[in-house]
């Protein structure tokens, strides 16, 4: 409530190098971002103008006086705006030392806007018609992708399966010396446990934990717990909920590892905790919950449900064309889910790495559900084609195909960094790509779990529908 008029913040003597850096920042339209009572506000560092004496030349100026206007209702801050004084500038055109006196002015104004509505100003930018049109276009585009994929599965895949069932029923009545081909004849190998089953169970546990984390965050966002401009609350919730959901990772990993007849469950738990962790909270919160969940999973009486018996020796996998290998399959599996979400990715990146505020959590949740559905459907389709080619090593393949969307998102990071952002230098580059690597790796684990679960459900269903010796 104290007004200031041209109060001096500090006096600074800028060196030639600092003048050059500020000039570069002004040229690239750098802006600052500040927070006051969790309210963000922005302003440019300076301006570029034509030289009055020589219009072909440009002069660069640094703002040195900021005017703050703060609106309040009783004892609560409602709104804050900041603008630079266009006349209080420092000339940065030449590389020479400059004395700068930074100042600020504060004006307080009373308003009738209630405290509960102070976020509407920030949500309006996301709710403007042209933004909503693009958001809804993104959802319609994604829904069309889902419908096309669903139609593909319903008409093609189910018809092929029906023909398979008729063919195999006919083969049982025909001569026994007929050559065996197709997915039915690998029934003795399709439920053979995968290689590196401890790592597989750990990845499944971590993916399940991250999926639970995403659901909890969406629930909190949809009920209005997070202010869109209070990023600290969101990041705090991410860390706390990640720590508290560690029991889910421990239970899922140990339970599935136990179903795969694994014996070293302690090593499996350590592997689960190390796949995706935050070191500072790992020893205090994550480890105890991880162990408790692991003990519960180890002692669970669940057994792996395989509708057919696994043979003693594995069946030889026939030679496969290049497009049926793991990498091409991952490329096909990741492209469709990514195409369903890439429009929304721009707004998320602009919010996380830019100055935009993201508030439409309901649309984001719909896109998230679409992502899960498309991932599950495409993984099921590719798993069927893999089994039809008599390749019974589908466990890791389904996980990798489901998680491959995370690789595509990281590829989008490269595009965003070089084409949409103006970041440069070691610090910005390492910060951006380091954080995005962690996030995309989390998506890889979560969507890999979704892909495997969908494929497992599908494989169990089709082998339960046939008669096997």
From TrEMBL:
Provide the membrane topology annotation. Multi-pass membrane protein
* Chain segments annotated as transmembrane: 134-157, 199-227, 233-253, 265-285, 330-349, 361-382, 394-418, 430-459
- State the compartments where it is located: Endosome membrane; Golgi apparatus membrane
GO CC field: endosome membrane; Golgi membrane
Q: Name one GO biological process term.
A: protein localization to membrane
Q: Which InterPro entries match?
A: EMP70
Q: Which UniProt keywords apply?
A: Endosome, Golgi apparatus, Membrane, Signal, Transmembrane, Transmembrane helix
Its family remark reads:
Belongs to the nonaspanin (TM9SF) (TC 9.A.2) family.
Q: Report what the protein is called.
A: Transmembrane 9 superfamily member
Say which species the protein is native to. Answer: Lactuca virosa
């Amino acid at each position: 409530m104290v007004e200031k008029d041209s109060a001096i913040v500090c006096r600074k003597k800028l060196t030639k190098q600092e003048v050059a850096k500020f000039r570069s920042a002004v040229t690239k339209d750098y802006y600052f971002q500040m927070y006051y009572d969790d309210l963000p506000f922005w302003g440019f560092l300076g301006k570029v103008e034509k030289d009055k004496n020589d219009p072909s030349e440009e002069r660069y100026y640094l703002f040195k006086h900021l005017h703050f206007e703060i609106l309040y209702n009783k004892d609560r801050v409602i709104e804050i705006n900041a603008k630079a004084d266009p006349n209080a500038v420092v000339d940065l055109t030449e590389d020479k030392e400059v004395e700068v006196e930074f100042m600020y002015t504060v004006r307080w104004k009373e308003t009738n806007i209630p405290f509960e509505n102070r976020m509407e100003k920030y949500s309006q930018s996301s709710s403007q018609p042209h933004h909503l049109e693009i958001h809804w276009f993104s959802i319609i585009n994604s829904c069309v992708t889902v419908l096309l994929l669903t139609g593909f599965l319903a008409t093609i895949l189910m018809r092929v399966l029906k023909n398979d069932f008729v063919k195999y029923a006919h083969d049982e009545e025909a001569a026994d010396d007929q050559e065996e081909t197709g997915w039915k004849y690998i029934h003795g190998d399709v439920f053979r446990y995968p290689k590196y089953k401890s790592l597989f169970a750990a990845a499944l546990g971590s993916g399940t934990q991250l999926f639970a984390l995403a659901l909890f965050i969406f629930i909190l966002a949809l009920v209005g717990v997070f202010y869109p401009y209070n990023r600290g609350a969101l990041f705090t919730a991410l860390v706390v909920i990640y720590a508290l959901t560690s029991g889910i990772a421990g239970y899922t990993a140990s339970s599935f590892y136990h179903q795969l007849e694994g014996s070293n469950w302690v090593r499996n738990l350590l592997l689960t905790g190390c796949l995706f962790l935050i070191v500072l909270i790992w020893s205090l919160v994550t480890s105890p919950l991880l162990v408790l969940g692991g003990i519960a999973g180890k002692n669970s009486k669940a057994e792996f449900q395989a509708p057919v018996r696994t043979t003693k020796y594995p069946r030889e996998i026939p030679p496969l064309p290049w497009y049926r290998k793991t990498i091409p399959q991952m490329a096909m599996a990741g492209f469709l889910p990514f195409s369903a979400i890439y429009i929304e990715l721009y707004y998320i990146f602009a919010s996380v790495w830019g100055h935009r505020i993201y508030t439409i959590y309901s649309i984001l949740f719909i896109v998230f559900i679409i992502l899960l559905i498309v991932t599950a459907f495409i993984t099921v389709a590719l798993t069927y084609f893999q089994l039809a080619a008599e390749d019974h090593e589908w466990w890791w393949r389904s996980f990798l195909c489901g998680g491959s969307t995370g690789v595509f998102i990281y590829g989008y990071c490269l595009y965003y960094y070089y084409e949409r952002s103006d970041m440069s230098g070691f610090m910005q580059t390492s910060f951006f790509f380091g954080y995005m690597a962690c996030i995309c790796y989390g998506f890889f684990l979560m969507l890999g779990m979704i892909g495997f679960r969908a494929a497992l459900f599908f494989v169990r269903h089709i082998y339960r529908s046939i008669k096997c010796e």
